[in-house]
Amino acid sequence: MRRHLGALVLVGPLALFVALFFLWPLATVMTQAVADSTVGQALPATSGAAPDWDRQSPPPEELKAALVEDLRNLDNRQLFGDIVRRLNSVQPGFRTLMGRTMTAISRADGPVDLSSVDRRWDDPVYWRAIVGVLAPYTDRHLLAALDLERDGAGAIVPIPAGESANRTILLRTFWVAAVVTVACAVIGLPYAMLVASVGGWLRQILLAAILLPLWTSLLVRTAAWYILLQDRGLINDALRSVGLIDAPLPLLFNRAGVVIAMTHVLLPLMVLPIYSVLVAIPKNLMPAAASLGAPPLRAFLRILLPLSFRGLLSGSLLVFMTAIGYYITPALIGGPQDQMISSIIAFYATGSANWGMAAALGVLLLAATMVLYIVYGWLSTDRTARA
Amino acid sequence: MLRIARIIFGAAAVLFLLAPLAAILPMAFTSSVFLTYPIPDFSLRWFEELFTAGAWRRSIINSLIVGFGTTVLATVLGTLAAVGLRGRFVLSGSVRTLFLLPMVVPAVVLGVGMQILFARIGIASSYLGVIIAHTVLAVPFVLVSVTASLDGIDRSVERAALSRGATPPSVLLRETLPLAAPGVISGAVLAFATSLDEVVLTLFVAGPNQRTLARQMFSTIRENISPAIAAAAFLFIAGTILLALLVLLVRRRFKAPAPETAAEA
Amino acid sequence: MPGRDSYRTVFPVQPRIRFHCVSKSFGSLSVIDDLSLDIAAGEFVSLLGPSGSGKTTILMILAGFEAPTSGEVLLDGRRIDHLPPYRRDMGVVFQDYALFPHMTVAENIAFPLKMRGIGRAEAAAKVARVLDMVQMGSMRDRRPSQLSGGQKQRVALARALVFEPSVVLMDEPLAALDKQLREQMQLDIRDLHRRLGLTVVFVTHDQSEALTMSDRIAVFNRGRVEQIGTPREIYDRPATRFVADFIGETNLVEGVVRDRDGGCAVVGLARGGSLSVAAANGLAAGQRVLVSIRPERIALGRERPAGPNTLRARIVDTVYQGDHLRVLLDDGAFGFVVRMDRRATEWPEGAEVVASVDPADCWVIPL
Prior knowledge:
Chain B is mostly helical. Chain B has 11 helices and no strands. Chain B has a single domain, classed as MetI-like fold, CATH 1.10.3720.10. Chain B has helices at 2-27, 45-52, 54-84, 92-100, 107-121, 127-151, 155-163, 168-197, 200-205, 213-222, 228-254. The radius of gyration of chain B is 22 Å and the shape is globular. Chain B starts with a helix and ends in an 11-residue tail after the last helix. The relative contact order of chain B is 0.15. The model of chain B is unreliable at 256-265 (pLDDT under 50). By secondary structure, chain C is of the alpha+beta class. Chain C has helices at 55-63, 105-115, 120-133, 149-161, 179-196, 207-213, 231-236, 241-246, and strands spanning 17-26, 29-39, 44-48, 70-75, 78-79, 90-93, 167-171, 200-204, 216-221, 224-229, 251-261, 264-269, 274-277, 288-293, 298-301, 310-320, 324-330, 335-341, 352-357, 362-366. Mean pLDDT of chain C is 86; it is low at 1-10.
């Protein structure tokens, strides 16, 4: 018991720190993704009266009176504009309806009969829209992150083509991450096998070649690729001097550059798990396969490849998981057509202060990452299949 | 045949891995304003620029302030937690996993959350905010590093001290921590390196007054790239090598098992 | 199957395996030095020696994992030293089993059949048969990680036998097992060898294992074969000091041949005194020799018996070892070991006794 108390005292500070500055920010992102309190706060009386209505019958008088009271007290024109826009996106016609109603309210001093201002106020459809935007939680950011929205009846529909590119960017993110993962696997698997098959100083050099970039600042590596990839960079110079090309290949600010630089940055994450699996494979399995009649290629395909598969899978998950969250490399090496989900999140958060959208896209990215991480964790602890 | 293919592949892969690092270093000494080869003349002008131009100088100082703060905070929190998590008790596995999670969570997502939250609790655009943000990312490295060196300690030393009547806190201070020192020091170095290299969270939580060297490099590459970048990169790499040598030296002196670090960075 | 003692040094038929003047060196380090060795079909030959003696290298050369620096290796009269391992048709059992961890027991055993393009049904039948043979029929769907050391060993054995190779090579296959299991496996492997008429080359550093299992033993030391012979020959008539020392326990005394008398001779010992030895054919007077006397061949008594080779000595220690007594004696110049029946009288420490040995039990090794 005393030991547990001691452990608690030691672990406590970090636990508190992580809870405050890691979990809380993530929770903030999650609530921000679904929070929608602006309308509810702007229309407090209506919010209070809304729960009493069953959403089917004609709207009760108390609800109408509450809305009139709220609109009369609403002196922030910009907020009013926001609310009308929100309502109009749910149910077309609100722009004229609210304009007319506001004019009527400002002219009258006492109670206003909304039905006489506009017949549409008797239609529950419009009230359902109001009650809908009053709710403190909304799924519209999350839907919008996937290029979806709710129509007037509440059904989920795709937004009109050309209005948002979120889905394109999500697909691009997964596509770029997949290409980088494959590139890392294609280079990383043979490289890890090479490292595992040699010994002595050669192995030390090959390992150092993998670890040195890993220990080098990401920014330095990205800047270095900038230098290599530019039109007058070393790659183009070299290709030109051997006469392979006449005009410089465009490598910077496009997809090729992003994939090359990200592959370089993430390659160690592929090589190290494969290598650690390979060195754990008993040395005599390949000789055993040979003695049992397997020529080198078949021994490789039947023994070494299946056994390194777990490392390959771990490495691929690690690379893919890291790649989908990448920000710096695409931001610096990529063009506008190569920006990934992180760039869009950063744009919404710092560029346009659209916290809801930033948070919603962030939740999607977080969820994808966590799923991959759980699979990765499960893979790296499950050792029953190993001798 | 296979042998030749292996040699060619190995050489090509090593070239791919190391060429960028080899390419950027000489660029620090160019006299030109362009980042292209061949270098016209050897010059230290870009180092001069780094140390005299207001924005660069300020950012270096900021990086040192934030790096120092992060190192202290992360090392203290991480070391204590590593010691506390040593004895296996209920949930210690899950707690450890939780503590390592900042390595995994996409920085941009964490950044958005921190930006909103830090503004709400009043530490946005402050050194404290940046240090806290960097510490969240740096703590896992300290934890992994210290845990690894604690695992290498023979517990009988501590049991002997306890049986002589020493109290647990004094055993921790006099026996355990000195033995774990190599892990603590490499953890501290990794924490500093993490802070030095951090860009994404800095973008979200730092104000113009807390612009760090990495942040300054980021916007320089983005806006108007110049060989000052290469000079900064040179400092970074030189610093990394110095720190690595320091860690190596410390480990050799203590002759404790070397913790595996950075494998999951 | 050749009987243990009826082994003929000259093969009337072609040997299954022939090493002809094989040498192997790594750089300047010579590991095998001009080795020639014939192994008959159906024979069980152990390569016995301390670690680093070259016995494993010979096995690796035979299996094709190492190429000899010079010399020839022949299988049934064909040179095989240029063939890669996968074309040699030899079943190898490795020290730590080398089972494929990602395959089940049955898949492991079917692997060599698959590599030989044997059909699924036929392969399954062969796998089932060989699994029964090693008493592992119930384990066919387990993975190697779910097996005990002895079970892994049986699977490795089954895998090396299933494709009916012309030779089975075993590289210290029992070294990782505990004593009881090892002894059981020794008998099982010997039994399989006899039943199937296998040709087995068995590497071990355990002399009792070699004595138990082999038709012939080749004793290795520093890359050379010190002696090749049946277990009985190796034990009773060691050709060199190394063999006498390495195989079992023995008392070695140095001396010079003094008198010859028909088949017998008298050896004057360097420490004083003399020994009559039988089977002294080929010895010349004045020759320096080593006399090896096995501990169990020495008799102890209170009174001096009639006959040669008696020695008065003092009991230093008596150790009860379950199946026998191990007695340490000292005659003032020289300590030696006697092994006695467990029911023999236990002498008190310090007691004066007379040790005697039959001249026929004194084996002479020329120096």
